[in-house]
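step: validate -> pass
step: tokenize input -> pass
step: predict -> running
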Amino acid sequence: MASNKILRVNEDIRRVLSALLRDMKDPRLQQGMLSITEVDTTGDLRFAKVYISVLGQADEKELKKGLRSASGYLRRELGSRLDLRYTPELIFELDGSIARGAEISRLLNELENKERSDADEEADG
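step: predict -> pass
step: emit ->
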């Protein structure tokens, strides 16, 4: 279990990176709606794993290249906006949980609509 300080740092990093990513001009980062789902920082604050979810994403490889390319800038801006002893090195991971949740929701809606139409046919028939 992470300490309260690490949890606060994770939330601060998530908040600042979200704002920074919205203003990025790199076309590789403008492929879809980008959102940071979670940040997991090591106890010594040297590394931060940033989980990113993208809706409407076209090319996963290009997105990762864009994030890797922007990581230096993002780290420098993070260091200037947060008062931390060490600015963590950013490691980006794609998180498909939002897309999976949307797909599950769509499937449940389809199933509900099918059951409703089957019930209507039985009532009519």
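step: describe -> The longest strand covers residues 33-41.
step: cleanup -> pass
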